[in-house]
Amino acid sequence: MHVMRYCLSLLTICVVLALGNWSEAAGPRIAAGSSHTVAIKSDGTLWAWGSNVSGQLGDGTTANRSVPTQIGSATNWNVIAAGEAHNVAIRSDGTLWAWGSNVSGQLGDGTTTTRATPIQVGAATNWSAVAAGDTHTVAVRTDGTLWAWGSNVSGQLGDGTIVNKTVPTQIGTVTNWSTAAAGSAHTVAIRTDGTLWAWGSNASGQLGDGTTANKTVPAQVGGAATWNAVDAGSGYSVATGSDGTLWAWGANASGQLGDGTIVNKTVPTQIGSGVIWSTVTAGSIHTMAIRSDGTLWAWGSNVSGQLGDGTTVNRTVPTQIASGFSVPLQVISTVPANGAKEVSLDTVIQAVFNHTMDATTITTDTFTVSGGVTGTIEFNSSTNTATFTPSAPLDSSGTYTATITTGVRDSSGTSLPANFSWSFTTDPEDKGEGGCFIATAAYGSYLDPHVQVLRNFRDRYLATNRIGRYLVSSYYQYSPPVARLIESHGCLRTAVRWALTPLVYGLEQPFLIVIGLFLGIAIIRKRRRAGS
After folding, report:
1. Confidence check: pLDDT of 24 > 50
2. Its pTM surpasses 0.85
């Protein structure tokens, strides 16, 4: 990417704030290429300005534009992404469109012909997210599949080759991709389970796997499953965790990682501590981010003044540029992730906010789960995390929708602009996440025959009456910590097994209980007689 892109990244933020009817409501609605800008207004119209040598403005010409120019007459543009000299966008009907430079097939139309107006990419109508690198494109469909096309000289498409592709090519068979970002020659993406994956060029360690070897297929970055958002620059990557922490890795010659050095990092490195980052974006070799308090921060290369601090001095740590860049109250991550599949039946349901919250407004009235699921709410003020703990295990193969309503407010009294909902599907098979926590911990498996006996007793007898259901609900609420204690102490596990086994045998063979009662009575009587 060229030097001009440095300045444009800051310019795009200013444009969003200055022009009243530009919106980010439905996804990325403004993007900067190497020397051009594209944006979507709140009325769904598309606008562009800047360099147009490759037709990247989409107005049918190659004439540069110094003011925003409307592109076509469509009013259903929804998401936009800009590469070095090409653009890709999704309309509200789920169709994908591209225009501009096409030297590597990055438009996905089966050719390498430059296009000066938007053209539809294939016939699919289920595109949900898209990102553009210098000369490659990646996108996610609503079914969770990942697709890529364009330049592939470093393996940045992730299809196991280094051959360019001129049409969308599915990457693997995984169906739980959530979002993706494209660097100059590498790609990073997050799955719905919160794991982070990277592939392509790795000369500066931008894949975060501890090496500098290129990868031609997606490789997991570490073992964490708490990633929330990711972006990619020229040879480096930045990401935020579900707890609002900020991480960076890869090229660092200009201090763009923000860790106070100019040394490359080959694994994710946390930047600062004790603050919540709402959003982060990577330029070519500089980074900008907004904290939850609305302050704007920048670091990295500043040769053209792209950091906006009034100097041309590079910064190796986040430097505050301005305040008042208020980010609306929003949910920035969830557990389970939206669209997650095979979720544990005993999962907790969490939402992380980008503002300091008024905990009194987060209740079972403002945080709900479909299907009549009841539970308790807890709020962790240090991480701005609300946790809904169901009173009983969720049903297997069930689809649930969690909702945070506009009734929640932050500490300043600001309400959530609109209800926020996300859905997930539980595990279709009973694999041990459905209760009987103590017995499972004692016997080592939810499928152990002893545990099965206790489960049958719960389902056939306790669950059929009000008192039994109350006992089960109380058990689910208080037994998990006990189960964890049992799991971590071998002697305690043995003792609990010893105590449970007679009960299990008795439930399995009721006549044994009767025999045991008679024997017990006989022994007591015999001892009484002997004592007298």
Report:
1. no
2. no
